[in-house]
Amino acid sequence: HPDRVYWPDAGVTKQGLASYYAQVWRFMAPLVVSRPLVLLRCPGGTAAQCFFQRHIWKGLSPEILTFRDPQDKDDEPLPAIDGLAGLIGLVQGGALEIHAWQSALDDLERPDQIVIDLDPGEAVAWPDMLSAARETRERLEAAGLFPFIKTTGGKGLHVVAPLKPAAGWDAVKRFCKDLADAMAADSPGRFIAKATKAERKGRIFVDYLRNTRGGTAIVPYSSRARAGATVAMPLAWDELSPAVTSSHFTVDNAMARLDNLASDPWQDFRKRAVALPEPGKSAKRRGRA
Fold first, then answer.
1. What are 97's strand-pairing partners?
2. What is the rounded distance in angstroms from the CA atom of residue 245 to the CA atom of residue 230?
3. Mind listing the pLDDT tens digit for each residue in 4-24?
4. What is the rounded distance in angstroms from the CA atom of residue 263 to the CA atom of residue 6?
5. pLDDT tens figures, 171-218
6. Model confidence over 220-231: pLDDT tens digits?
7. How far is CA 27 from CA 35, 107, 131, in A?
8. Element (H, E) at 227
9. Which end of the chain has fewer CB atoms within 10 angstroms, the N or the C?
10. Is the model's pTM score more than 0.85?
11. Terminus-to-terminus CA distance in the chain, angstroms?
């Protein structure tokens, strides 16, 4: 059913989503292959029921990998992909959002990246989000990491830093929590490190919990099951702009951006991996020149 409409408001069909992924695959592949995935499936499109899928399902495309998490009490296989055919299989299954662990299949217990999710509360202006992203970058760089930035296709921004897979989940979570706590302590009027929604109005939630075992974040270039068929888009730091909000890029307009790039802003992502910094380093802040 290639003509099945997945986003009625944007007129994007199943075939349209598959064509988009075929075009962005060369950018997306290093960031999604051989990683445990959690999917938001909407087999009838965004106008019908959507649900999170953590395990494989009946009728799964044979191009989609399956693996077993040794700590999964349900002992049900989980999905992953190792090529474009697997990604198209996810599209066939109505997966409109692709979320991934912060570790790879061959080293589940040692994360190879961290994600700091900057989630704006009510009444947070977009320029404040840009400032928050730059501050997160400063703190991670002061700790010796190499942060990258992407829109989420929703409301927020993700600051992502690659790691050499050496430290375990507890150490990585502790590092990210220290960073979030330090930001909230230094600027309590701007940031909050707790998920309590009642306290988030006018503040940005520095969400470190995506850096836990089984925690996930939206994959770069993944579509979102949101109005307009938005996508998560990697950016260069100098592209942060009041004009480019988190929902700016869509299945329809993403390739116009990518076709005009002089270079992929995330092309060196894996090459920039370093070991997790010593405890306490993430709490420091360094001004940028």
1. 40
2. 11
3. 999 999 999 999 999 999 999
4. 31
5. 999 999 999 999 999 999 999 998 778 888 999 999 999 999 999 999
6. 999 999 999 999
7. 16, 23, 27
8. none
9. C
10. yes
11. 54
